[in-house]
UniProtKB/TrEMBL annotation, chains A, B:
Protein name: LacI family DNA-binding transcriptional regulator
Keyword Disulfide bond found: no
Transcription regulation among keywords: yes
HTH lacI-type domain residues: 8-62
Source superkingdom: Bacteria
InterPro entries, per database record: HTH_LacI, LacI/GalR-like_sensor, Lambda_DNA-bd_dom_sf, Peripla_BP_I
UniProtKB keywords: DNA-binding, Transcription, Transcription regulation
Gene3D superfamilies: 3.40.50.2300, lambda repressor-like DNA-binding domains (1.10.260.40)
GO-annotated molecular function: DNA binding
Organism of derivation: Streptomyces thermospinosisporus
Amino acid sequence: MTDTAPRPTLEAVAARAGVSRATVSRVVNGGDGVRQALVERVQQAVEELGYVPNQAARSLVTKRHDAVAVIVAEPESRVFADPFFARQLRGISKELTAHDNQLVLLLTEGRGDHARVGRYLAGGHVDGALVFSLHLDDPLPELIQRAGIPTVFGGRPGWSGGRDGVVYVDSDNRGGARDAVRHLLGLGRTRIAHITGPLDQTSAADRLDGYRDVMVDADPRLVEEGDFTARTGERAMRALLARCPDLDGVFAANDLTAAGALRALREHGRRVPDDVAVVGFDDMPPIAEQTEPALTTVRQDIEEMGRLMARLLLRGLDHAPSGVILPTTLVRRDSA
Amino acid sequence: MTDTAPRPTLEAVAARAGVSRATVSRVVNGGDGVRQALVERVQQAVEELGYVPNQAARSLVTKRHDAVAVIVAEPESRVFADPFFARQLRGISKELTAHDNQLVLLLTEGRGDHARVGRYLAGGHVDGALVFSLHLDDPLPELIQRAGIPTVFGGRPGWSGGRDGVVYVDSDNRGGARDAVRHLLGLGRTRIAHITGPLDQTSAADRLDGYRDVMVDADPRLVEEGDFTARTGERAMRALLARCPDLDGVFAANDLTAAGALRALREHGRRVPDDVAVVGFDDMPPIAEQTEPALTTVRQDIEEMGRLMARLLLRGLDHAPSGVILPTTLVRRDSA
DNA sequence: ATGAAAGCGCTAACAG
DNA sequence: CTGTTAGCGCTTTCAT
């Protein structure tokens, strides 16, 4: 790696402005309590020299880093197929940027990477962590707790029952699912199937619970487990069709799954929504608007989730509510 | 943000092991030239105290950060619709992780963010930068050059002609495009249309060039500009169909565009591949395998691109080749 | 309101 | 091989 040209230090600026380092430091950090004349002189010197504070030196004394780790622990498949991840990142990035914080991205490939993440967190490089996509049996939270660093989880962690001090942001998965199923019911459908997500994630489990809230004693054969991918959605739909040819409605755990289901339905000559009405979850425009027919779905504001997670973390977790649940809304298009 | 418990310092470890700070430092950093007995004593002290080096203090003296900035300058639309971004990130992350480097993600929302990025880069927080998705008129490279920090670009920068010392990694877009069109020709198609990407990006321009290489004097009306999104691919296909109803082949600049084209084709009652053969570009499995019919497309190894970019940067740019072009391969499925 | 001085925790000569 | 000694560039009392 080529060396960077030596950058001017506080010292240099002080010399040029004819003041002490302390004064320059004050000006650079807001400049209260410094005479206006001096402030200007310093600012000019900063300008002329192109001075930029050395973050390492600053962190060394302040013990702050103005950096937040974002940890994504997710099997490849989903992260790549689904714009979900990118959207959350964007929200987080916006909020962090607005507060002059940097985003350090930690992608994990599996258990092997956990030690590394733990070490990094314990290393005190960042002021906090934002963690996604935890599965029920994930050891990551344990590590993170041990690192003793402020953390906000994206999505309700499966193990949080009882654990205190766990802060998370989630969508109203259960309520959204209820809305979806009720909408189907309102359309006169009675044989409503559900293709779930991976049930070791709370978002998927909660949506299933919502489905069951409304379909109190539904035929258990109407529920098929999926994993949030289109491929599996298609396969699940085929299984459902074979098992319950009389079904007239489907609530898919996310839009990708719904897209897969739509394919299977078309393949089997079922018209949507005439024969079978379909509702998705997420409202990812590039997916929901592109399906044939366009998808009726439950919208969650993913970017806002990201933004909120960052905001909570930056504000300080001491007075933060444990869980924040964001509302969802049903978006009607053509599939139901 | 809650404070982290005060962590033990080198000093503390030294005291406990009964050696000097220098010795501890040596052990922590590889430990060559230290008697085995001492090494073990120090390691045990480290263990017992749970010592982790303070990165800020270390950077302050070494002037290295073991961190790389990844800058993504891309209008929302594409980053979110396309798994492209996530894949490259994964490749980069893997390589960086393997070399104990951190990934600092900088997402820009537009011109307004450029100053911030420039400041960050100039701030000397990172040892290098990886930059994506530059458009022809993008001022970002300028800023980056000024920051004087080692940089590798993802995709051939549009302005690199003449500029020396620009290092980039790209796919063989032009060659891949030629393969795609030749394949269509080999199928006996003669009226082959092309839906381009945004032509201010070299990847799109190069693919168009590749198309023209083969279709030397093609009817110019067979070319329609797109922007790498499905929606636009659909619209472009409609326009093409209206203008040249006799077309029998389409080369779409990427898979998403091809997916959109497929929709338009279906809507117009054209059978694929019988009436119109379609070839895409990228080979994004979640897209290419899910279209109806499955997409014949030009594969590029996106994750490898990311990995290679990181590798070049970490190895040091001084002896790096200016441009590295990765090969592409045609993947036959059902659409052509 | 401003300056002097003391470190933050670490590495890197330099001695020994 | 190991210890001593200087800082790296910045913030922050404490005087003035």
